């Protein structure tokens, strides 16, 4: 009987953690989703433009929304860094260093991809929404490279 109670408790804890992790992941939006919401374009239109070589920043710039896009991307990346600190995969000092570097790069981001947002910061924001392990190489630049393992903010 004790083992059954322990099993029920374990399943409950795992279920709660799974739901909270899924809720967190649901709050994080991809750069494509942010660009679509800001520009009034469909997600399909935005991803097609990206596939043709235009950065999400350039898409936002054309709509006069680059500053809003950069602000929202920064908030998304802050949320990922905060979660990684909570998860123990980054220290607060590492997260602060990454954030400072992203903010400095973002200050010169013109939507063309030349700023290198997150490049070399070790943030590993990755592509998509997949929960990854680790600290990746973290390019996540304004030009949309966004490579690295991690929470998946990637392309700007």
Give the structure's gist in a few sentences.
The protein is mostly helical. The chain is built from six helices and no strands. The chain has one domain.
Could you characterize the architecture of this molecule?
- The structure is a single chain.
- With 156 residues, the protein is an all-alpha fold.
- It has one domain.
- Helices cover 57% and strands 0% of the residues.
- The chain contains six helices and no strands.
- Helix 2 crosses helix 3.
- It starts with a helix and ends in a 49-residue tail after the last helix.
- 39% of the residues are buried.
Q: Strands, helices and their partners?
A:
Blueprint: H1 2-27, H2 31-39, H3 43-51, H4 56-62, H5 66-87, H6 92-107
Q: Assess the beta-strand content as a share of residues.
A: under 5%
In the predicted model, the low-confidence regions spanning at least 5 consecutive residues are 9-24, 127-156
Secondary-structure element string:
HHHHHH
What would the average pLDDT be, to the nearest integer? Answer: 72
How many individual β-strands?
Answer: 0
| Oligomeric state of the chains present here | single chain
Structurally, the number of domains stands at: 1
Shape: globular
The description of the largest β-sheet is: none
Q: Termini, distance in Å?
A: 54 Å
Helix coverage percent of residues? 55-70%
Helix count from the secondary structure assignment: 6
- The helix/strand class is mainly alpha
Radius of gyration: 17 Å
């Amino acid at each position: 009987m004790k083992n059954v109670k322990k099993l029920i408790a374990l399943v409950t804890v795992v279920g709660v953690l799974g739901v909270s992790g899924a809720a967190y992941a649901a709050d994080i939006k991809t750069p494509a989703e942010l660009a679509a919401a800001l520009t009034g374009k469909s997600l399909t239109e935005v991803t097609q433009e990206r596939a043709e070589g235009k950065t999400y920043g350039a898409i936002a710039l054309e709509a006069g929304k680059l500053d809003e896009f950069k602000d929202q991307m920064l908030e998304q990346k802050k949320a990922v860094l905060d979660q990684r600190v909570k998860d123990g995969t980054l220290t607060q000092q590492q997260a602060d260093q990454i954030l400072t570097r992203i903010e400095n790069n973002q200050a010169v981001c013109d939507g063309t991809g030349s700023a290198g947002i997150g490049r070399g910061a070790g943030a590993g924001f990755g592509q998509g929404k997949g929960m990854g392990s680790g600290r990746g190489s973290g390019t996540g630049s304004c030009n949309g490279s966004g490579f690295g393992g991690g929470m998946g903010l990637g392309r700007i």
